[in-house]
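Human: I wish I could look at a protein chain and see how it folds. This is the protein in question:
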Amino acid sequence: MSKVITRAQFVSSIETFKQAYESPYFGRNSAKIPFSQEVNHQIFEKLDLKNQYENPSEKLHIVDYNTGFNSFVYDLHHYLRPRFHLLIPNSATTHKFWKRLQDMDPLCRNFYLFEEDPRSLRHYNSEELINSGKVVLDRNPAEKVNQTLLITGSYITTTDKSKVRSMLYFNQMCLAWYKYQKVKSLFWLRPADALKYLGIMGSRFRQTNSVVATAFNDVNVIAYSNFEKQKSVTRCMPEFPDAIKLPKVPQHEDLMLVEFQSNHEKYSIEHMSEFTLVLHKLFMLPSYKVIQNLHFLGPGADEYFKQVLPASVLDCRICDLPIEELVNISNLYFRWPFKPITDLELYMEADKDHN
């Protein structure tokens, strides 16, 4: 391939994914997932994908969000050979990149791309694909893992934080793709961002987003790198001793691959609105004790909850409070006859950054 200068020239010159991947311009000056086939296959085997998806060529649909210059999504496609694989590129340039590969590379012709702006919220809506028959999904699967849908995504830039929260919120409320139960999601994140969703008890990262992630998912770190030697990552990773250590990629920041296996059966949450309100109110000051934050729940909440909660819960720090206790508090809040009359607006509050 002749020397190219701009990404546009690079995109217009490629003919196969292999050629693109081996080029020094693959993902240059942009977010990318650049790992070799050997590393990606090691990840697939750790995830035990071929045993979890018994007949992917006939049943499985993969939806990849924020697709950039990404070897992981390419290798995943050829590892599982799904019935349908939707790519939602993160920019016009990467859309052109995958569209050219779809046209030029026989190994990429089974990818499906939307023609519209990849940033459109329309892509959270699965109805058009379902109504057309392109996608056939199981809403209430008997298996632990939904055999018809796998969601992947790359959220590795500073502007992607809200997108991750959106996906976790959709899962909590069973919206968009997540109205189909027991869906597995595999998200590439920056380690500093990923820590906010791992649910590590007592850590400063255990805030509202962490509880939402772990209350409605089984969360696991599959692979990571920490060549920047971030102390917070070093302290947290003993919780995930089997995680694969990713190789160093020159001029590329550390990454973490997190598995979110949707599981709404972990806790019996009967009153979702009250649970969400209690969660956001109590975690306004996550390092404080429960007894210190009760007043956020409304006038008279201190007196009510002191009567119905044991001392061990009242004296527990919010960041140490098990989800079971949060569920119990939300049930008690629901039954409180003098709770404030509010029309709860469900919102996604960004956790504070901890640099």
User: Anything to note?
Assistant: The first helix runs from residue 7 to 13.
